[in-house]
Automatic annotation (TrEMBL):
Residues 122-312 form the ATP-grasp domain. It comes from the Bacteria. It comes from Amycolatopsis camponoti. It holds the Pfam family ATP-grasp_4. PANTHER family: ATP-GRASP ENZYME FSQD, FUMIPYRROLE BIOSYNTHESIS PROTEIN C. GO terms for molecular function: ATP binding; ligase activity; metal ion binding. Keywords: ATP-binding, Ligase, Nucleotide-binding. This is ATP-grasp domain-containing protein.
Length: 419
């Protein structure tokens, strides 16, 4: 067996374009450091992510979502694992349990459980003095209606443990509560919380030596309520220094309070007249191509390499950690309906500032109502010298693509342009 350090890559990638891209970068940065990489996941996911499997040193079939299974597998295998890591949100508990089981650096399992349970995370932050919306775990409509009767609205109804804005909706009056509950993905207990008004941001960063290092603050754009699907990001967010410092102090304090200490983080928040209100906390890097945006904004950054070096006790002091350029991503948001044609897409692909672009629909496809992230039909990621320039360019490129509906082809061919 090779003496090279072995990285246990729990969960590998999801069969989604941004996850596959993140995994490819992580594997390349691991290879550059001479690491062996052992990828685990179910047989179904491994088969669906063959590019990741092909680049790994070894793979094993393990259900990374089943509590305790990854830790038991690692103990029984008897192989030396020098670092344990995962990109995926749902694999973070398995990573913490496995790292503890094999005796390497990791986040405490109870801290990861707390962060992954949205109401428990809110309660921990509120107990430590961080402003938080009031939240309640509800088993049924009657309990949710009681919450609405106790606290002023509007309110948010959302799953306790889900991703991609699935089942998240705004309730402006009690009569709309049943419709919101009907949007939930399953019959499990769900959360109801007070709506927070204000622009939204996220904070991207990495733990180095147990200390959170913020790499950038990202500005978010979303569809109008009642849904909250993200349609764009700008990095770094154009903010006055005082507001950026306020955000960084709150996020750093929250991460320390919650007990996280290794890996990446992605923390969501609102800026309100009363100050920063923290939203969901994630012990992994952000999705939606934020990793590509960070790599452009911070030239020379090796996002995953930073984590691997930290996990292996190889501190780096020669890497840039401050943005010097700007980047943005914008998603297409055409209205629902069947389309006859897409015009202008090839020009977008040819633009020199485009870091990544993808389109998931073509002639004859049906565009669904935009209620969750999975309903989005395409995107453009761009890099520029400043975040303002990147934001403007991303908007222009998205606006330049025309989705022609079947119902309009006889009357107004090629004239229907919508974002």
């Amino acid at each position: 067996m090779s003496d090279a350090p072995t990285l246990l890559f729990v969960g590998g990638a999801r069969p989604l374009s941004f996850s596959l891209d993140m995994a490819a970068e992580a594997l390349a940065q691991a290879a550059a450091r001479g690491l062996r990489v052992h990828v685990t996941n179910t047989a179904e996911v491994l088969a669906a992510t063959r590019d990741v499997v092909a680049k790994a040193t070894e793979t094993s079939t393990v259900d990374v979502l089943k509590p305790g299974e990854s830790a038991s597998w690692a103990r029984e295998r008897g192989e030396r694992f020098d670092a344990v890591y995962a990109l995926q949100e749902l694999a973070q508990v398995a990573v913490a349990e496995t790292a503890e089981a094999v005796g390497v650096a990791g986040n405490p399992p109870d801290a990861v459980h707390r962060v992954r349970t949205k109401d428990a995370c809110r309660e921990a932050l509120a107990a430590a003095g961080f402003p938080q919306p009031v939240v309640r775990l509800c088993a049924n409509e009657a309990e949710a209606a009681a919450f609405l009767g106790e606290y002023a609205g509007p309110w948010i109804v959302k799953p306790r443990d889900a991703m991609g804005s699935t089942g998240v909706s705004l309730v402006t009056e009690p009569a709309r509560l049943p419709a919101a509950i009907a949007l939930l993905p399953d019959a499990k207990p769900f959360l109801v919380e007070q709506f927070v008004e204000g622009p939204e941001f996220s904070v991207e960063g990495v733990f180095l030596g147990g200390v959170p290092k913020i790499l950038a603050v990202t500005a978010k754009e979303k569809v109008p309520p009642p849904f909250f699907v993200e349609t764009g990001h700008v990095l770094p967010a154009p903010l006055p220094d005082a507001r950026r410092q306020e955000i960084e102090e709150q996020v750093t304090g929250a991460l320390k309070t919650l007990g996280l200490r290794v890996g990446g983080f992605h923390v969501e928040l609102w800026l309100t007249p009363a100050g920063v209100v923290l939203g969901e906390v994630h012990g992994r890097f952000g999705g939606d191509w934020i990793h590509r945006m960070l790599a452009h904004a911070i030239p020379g950054l090796e996002l995953y390499g930073l984590v691997f070096d930290d996990l292996l006790g190889r501190p780096r002091t020669d890497v840039p950690l401050e943005p010097s350029r700007g980047a943005a991503v914008r998603y297409f948001t055409p209205p629902p309906g069947r389309i006859a044609a897409v015009e202008g897409w090839e020009d977008v692909l040819a633009h020199p500032a485009v870091l990544h672009a993808e389109l998931g629909v073509g002639p004859g496809d049906e565009i669904k109502p935009l209620t969750r992230s999975g309903d989005r039909v395409g995107l453009v990621v761009v890099g520029a010298d400043t975040p303002e320039a990147a934001s403007a360019l991303a908007a222009d490129l998205v606006d330049s693509v025309k989705f022609v509906p079947e119902s309009a082809t006889d009357r107004l061919p090629g004239l229907w342009a919508l974002r």
